[in-house]
Design a protein that fits this description.
About 0% of the residues lie in helices and about 25% in strands. Strands 1, 2, 3, 4 and 5 form a five-stranded antiparallel beta sheet that branches. It has strands spanning about 10-15, 40-45, 60-70, 75, 85-90. The protein starts with 7 loop residues before the first strand and ends in a 23-residue tail after the last strand. The chain is an all-beta fold and about 110 residues long.
Length: about 110
Amino acid sequence: VGGQLPQAYLIKASIDPDIDAPVDGTFVIDDTDLSDGEGAININYGVVTFIFDELEPLTTYYFEIYPYTNSGINVNYKTSGTPPAGCGTPADRLHERVYRPRFRPPALFHP
């Protein structure tokens, strides 16, 4: 019963639907350049929206959210169960900056 609130969330992005879960003790650094097909961003607890810009049109992007506590070598990601996930495809260059996947992280972290 109950749960620990996370300190932050890791959002992983990829053009491959098979996104690797993060590993405890290995902090994932921010990488918002998705031109190589993958990226990641750490957002603090309480932030309810993050926007990935510069997405390629007609490309499907997949996203997973992992709550965590601590940082550096002490980071503890919640990887049990199925992480919140989503996907989307920007229509074309005209709409490239309009389509922005938004995530609302879950409230509780249950390690």
